[in-house]
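Lab notebook, bench 4. We co-purified these components, and the gel suggests they stay together. Before we commit to crystallization screens, I want a quick structural picture of the whole thing.
Request: model the full complex, all chains together.
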Amino acid sequence: MFRTKTGEEIFVIDGHTHFWDGSPANQKNIHGKQFIDCFFAYHTNLSPPEERWPKEKFEKYDARTMYDDLFVRGYDDMAILQPTYLTDFYKSGFNTTERNAELKKTHPDRFILNGAFDPRDGTKGLEHMHELKEKYNITGAKLYTAEWRGESKGYKLSDKESYRFLEEAQKLGIRNIHVHKGPTIIPLNRDAFDVADVDDVATSFQDLNFIVEHCGLPRLDDFCWIATQETNVYAGLAVALPFIHTRPGYFAHVISELLFWVGEDKILYGSDYGIWTPKWIVDRFMAFELPDDVVKETGVPLTMQAKKKILGLNAARLYGIDVDAQKAKLKRAA
Amino acid sequence: MPTQPASAGAMSHASRLAEVWDSLSRVTDPELDRSVTEMKFVSAVTLGEDGRVGIRFRLPTYWCAPNFAFMMADDMRAAVAALPWVSAVSVVLDEHMYAETINRGMAQGCSFADTFGEEADGNLDDVRRIFLLKAFQRRQEAMLLHLRDLGFAPDALARMTLSELDALTLDEAGALARTRYLERRDAAGPLAADALAFVTTEGQPLAPADFAAHLKRLRSVRVNAEFNGALCSGLLAARYEFDTTTPLKSQRPHS
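Here is the predicted assembly.
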């Protein structure tokens, strides 16, 4: 909960958190090492110096540390756990639904547990989706279209197999599809960050919401163009938000583009924990004001109402959270 | 390879190095539309015997898209090979998931498709074109904003021909914007003197009534590219821990 100077309570849902194990003991190969090293570079580059972690903590943190960082030191009221399996890089996976489920089990009111699926797994993958639904009653999933899987170096949401999976997800009520469109690798000869496949499936699956993580960066321009034409495409702010500290001018431009094209009802806050921690990000976001020249350029302000929606109300709507009831529940638990 | 002119032997080591750096400075990261030297991707240039040149480069992450890595390596090779005294160019990419493959391809003078074989699934022409057009859009925005601030109205800009743009008297910033724009203008259509200076990516005229909307689209291209540039610079600095001891300074004759 964030409290403004006037005492107003702002309900915060962190749309993007991870409980990972990137430690050397779990690394399967050089890619596993390079993967966590790359995350660490994001962390060191964009965190304020006093918020930087030692490498060992970054590679693997425990459940208690995460809980404290999010809900005790940080302002999060709830957090969505997004899995990233990476089983080709890590022996027991990087950040699986099962691992995340430990946190959900201990703190059921704090976490929203999302699953994952991969169309390349075929019928077995569909069965796994059913299992996740039955076992955890998931309502959202994180897709990582650029993940390596054996010979395959990725897939597109618009692939035939992917359609089968999305149809099944729609049927099961797994309606929030978070798509990682951000730092990725392949396909080699195409634009690996292309967001056109989101456009395709957003049109075909009107009952699903597509939350494009990292707001399509590094293809923000293409993403904005798509999102403006689709009613069920949302922008996740992870990776863009921490610029608020090191390079606020860039953040001002990015959030303004999103407000202009996508709109304040379709932008979701995410810390991307443990790459960044909610405390400083939310503090700075709440204190942030767009420079006059940027507002003049786009004609769109970042109001207090927009901040509230971005920090929690939009995610609450997508995940069917009754904010007042949830607040009361968390108060009772405390 | 170009032949070596008789006077080449007279060139000093330092001036050859300067020529190589100068050629490299005109090679861009296609995604960012910024020079590979300005981005500090080039980590070393060495001169060998008989006009041989060695170039080493590195990227912000181990995962940077290999297609762009290949394009930059290939463009650097071509740019330096065009210098008259250069007999051979080796380009080596460090610490990248595809370093070995790309370096082998470079050493053997292979195309992208040959370097990556079946994995490549075609060539890079399409992706190259996408990013040439983005560079075109970004540079067009800079030119249009400059001219707008000078008082040009949308209908005047929509009507302006290439020769008229060329004839304008501009200050240093304006002239630079014009040079940069004209370098990419052909991405959107032929460059006849009476062709329109400002067109869409499809080569169509701009409608004065849509001018504001057109600028908004260009703005999002610019914001995206600038954000990416900042992210890449930051990641490179974090990865290689730049501070006061970057080896570039000692090897680079001018910045």
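The radius of gyration of chain A is 19 Å. Worth comparing against the SEC data before the next meeting. Residues 181 and 193 of chain A are 6 Å apart (CA to CA).
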